[in-house]
Q: What sequence folds into this?
């Protein structure tokens, strides 16, 4: 199909905005990206780098509320909610609690499954076609356990993932775990290995995408915050950003955790809460893992890059709080120490936090905004924004170009929250 070339303004220069720009350019459109801070400097910078189709189940699952409350009572819990009167937060928590049942969990999983699978293959193709230097590796993802009870309890989830989504993990018992990943301490109970997951270095991906987009004519304007749309009726003709008007045919709002602040501009509810997480980046330890790993008992994630090594995780619902809390960083070290022969390596090169754009159903929002026919939302990617960047970019491009979406988009409509 021949697509008419359009001028598209993308608001937000994270992985979602960058991937939208990539696929829009490939379809022949011209793009400008504005960011209130710097391109690639928010949540898409220091995350764990997993491209993980294995993460198909939403966070809201049967028993999640009880488990979360129990975890919060522990003095140094990786999960915290700062108690406060915030109507949007309480509405969000209520929405989450209501979805903690098998039926909604499976519906969410079936919505996510095709976009997760598609995104992995789109990244593979993007990295190969464009020679993107982002330390792409396909080493899988390993969940490692100390406690035999917790390890065996995962069997039920494994059965569910195998039966519902054809995503069986390989079970590694006792020493089979250290045979597979010698950087682990001996004596752990076991692990579950997902062979098809990949990983990359997110900051390198963002820099490479920026070079690529600019080399193809994209304009990137930083320190340039979106302030409102210009125009009336069923379309908008420009957006006011950083005190100037930028004209465009189409507008894509990809503002991550900030998106909820733009509800009035889009005329819809966007129940997105900032879910703060932390990471520590350092040189590769002498005994460095080969496989990225998650330790579900302490909720710490480990990513070995070609050029470094990262510990990441924790989830804090503390609103738009931009302080770096060193005790949360210490949790990462403490949570990795029981599992790894060499859990960290000095000097620390980066202490980082980011706001995950959390929806209560764990599904992104990829849809036209009710305000006008040429305004689109691509936000709320929760824990999976890096993984889902490529497929979101492709879907937004298909919608703007008037082409049929290559995977179902109905579950990602904004109307589900209205
Ligand atoms: C510790 C941690 C580990 C993670 N690990 C993974 C992982 O392994 N795999 C994975 O898939 N996901 C992971 N995530 C989640 C992932 O990082 C996010 O889902 C993703 O980065 C969100 O991308 P985004 O483009 O929507 O938002 P962002 O990267 O936050 O970008 C949004 C941009 O919009 C800009 N903006 C906001 N408001 C305005 C405005 N008014 N005008 C102009 N610009 C504006 C911001 O400045 C920002 O640059 C992790 C997150 C954390 C915190």
A:
């Amino acid at each position: 199909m021949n697509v008419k070339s359009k001028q598209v303004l993308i608001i937000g220069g994270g992985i979602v905005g960058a991937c939208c720009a990539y696929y829009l350019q490939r379809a022949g459109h011209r793009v400008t990206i504005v960011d209130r801070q710097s391109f690639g400097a928010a949540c898409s910078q220091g995350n764990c780098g997993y491209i993980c189709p294995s993460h198909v189940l939403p966070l809201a699952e049967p028993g999640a509320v009880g488990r979360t409350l129990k975890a919060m009572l522990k003095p140094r819990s990786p999960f915290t909610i700062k108690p406060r009167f915030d109507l949007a937060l309480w509405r969000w928590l209520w929405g989450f609690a209501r979805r903690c049942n098998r039926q909604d969990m499976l519906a969410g999983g079936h919505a996510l499954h095709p976009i997760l699978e598609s995104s992995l293959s789109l990244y593979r193709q993007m990295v190969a076609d464009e020679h993107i230097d982002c330390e792409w590796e396909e080493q899988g993802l390993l969940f490692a356990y100390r406690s035999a009870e917790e390890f065996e309890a995962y069997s039920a989830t494994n059965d569910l993932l195998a039966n519902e989504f054809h995503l069986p993990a390989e079970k590694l018992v006792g020493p089979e775990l250290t045979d597979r990943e010698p950087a682990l301490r001996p004596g752990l109970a076991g692990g579950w290995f997902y062979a098809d997951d990949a990983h990359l270095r997110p900051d390198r991906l963002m820099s490479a995408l920026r070079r690529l987009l600019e080399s193809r004519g994209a304009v990137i304007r930083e320190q340039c915050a979106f302030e409102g749309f210009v125009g009336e009726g069923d379309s908008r003709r420009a957006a006011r950003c950083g005190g100037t008007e930028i004209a465009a045919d189409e507008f894509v709002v990809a503002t991550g955790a900030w998106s909820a602040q733009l509800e009035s501009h889009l005329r819809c509810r966007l129940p997105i809460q900032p879910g703060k997480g932390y990471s520590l980046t350092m040189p590769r330890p002498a005994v460095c893992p080969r496989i990225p790993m998650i330790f579900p008992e302490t909720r710490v994630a480990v990513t070995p890059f070609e050029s470094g090594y990262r510990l990441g995780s924790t989830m804090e619902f503390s609103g738009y709080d931009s302080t770096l809390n060193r005790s949360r960083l210490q949790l990462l070290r403490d949570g990795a120490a029981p599992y790894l022969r060499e859990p960290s390596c000095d000097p620390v090169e980066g202490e980082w936090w980011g706001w995950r754009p959390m929806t209560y159903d764990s599904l992104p929002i990829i849809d036209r905004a009710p305000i006008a026919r040429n305004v689109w939302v691509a936000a709320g990617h929760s824990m999976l924004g890096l993984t889902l960047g490529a497929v979101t970019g492709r879907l937004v491009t298909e919608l703007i170009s008037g082409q049929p979406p290559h995977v179902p988009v109905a579950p990602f409509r904004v109307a589900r929250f209205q």
